[in-house]
Amino acid sequence: MFSKVRVKKGALDHFRKRAREAFPLEFHAYLLGSIKSIDTIEIVEFCYPKVYQVQTTGEIQWSIEEYAALKEKADREGLTIVADIHSHPKWDAVMSSNDYKGCIIDGLSLCAIVSVYGKKTRVRFWNSTSPLPASIV
């Protein structure tokens, strides 16, 4: 179980800004990185699609083609799609049953959720196998 996430504050702040701009729709990115130790994951890149296949107030999806291209990019760069991050407009930063299912299907180690209430945001990184959030370091 990962209890620490290394992520650049600027990249996380940029996602939060874009999530506020997308409000009231959800916003999403996949996170490329690597497992550094038994309890630490490092995020090196936030990856965004050109366009979402689905983007509503309660659902967001990439196209199959863009997701396949992202997997190829990760392989070329020797990285892994370790997590995803998405917004919950007017909802807390907790994993829903659909979020959990998506993590398991995609084989992700973490799920990051950003709650968006107007200009305020809150970020939490969740382990896909535990109800405890990981710390941002």
The main pleated sheet reads as: 7 strands, mixed, barrel
Encode the helix/strand succession as letters: EHEEEEHEHEEE
Overall pLDDT confidence: 93
Give the CA-CA distance, first to last residue.
16 Å
User: Percentage of helical residues?
Assistant: 25-40%
> Count of helices?
3
Describe the global form.
Answer: globular
DSSP, total strands: 9
* Unreliable runs: none
The Cα radius of gyration reads 14 Å
Strand order of the largest sheet: 1-3-2-6-7-8-9
What percent of residues are in strands?
Answer: 35-45%
Helix/strand-derived category reads alpha/beta
What does this molecule look like?
The model has no long low-confidence stretch (mean pLDDT 93). The protein is 27% helix and 40% strand. It contains three helices and nine strands. The chain is an alpha/beta fold. The protein is globular, with a radius of gyration of 14 Å. It starts with a strand and ends with a strand. The strands form two sheets. It has a seven-stranded mixed beta barrel with strand order 1-3-2-6-7-8-9. The chain has helices at 9-22, 64-76, 97-106; strands at residues 4-6, 28-37, 40-47, 54-55, 60-61, 80-89, 110-117, 120-127, 133-136.
Short description:
The chain is α/β, with parallel strands linked by helices and 137 residues long. It has helices at 9-22, 64-76, 97-106; strands at residues 4-6, 28-37, 40-47, 54-55, 60-61, 80-89, 110-117, 120-127, 133-136.
Task: Give the SSE layout.
Layout: E1 4-6, H1 9-22, E2 28-37, E3 40-47, E4 54-55, E5 60-61, H2 64-76, E6 80-89, H3 97-106, E7 110-117, E8 120-127, E9 133-136
Parallel strand pairs: 1-3, 1-9, 6-7
Antiparallel strand pairs: 2-3, 2-6, 4-5, 7-8, 8-9
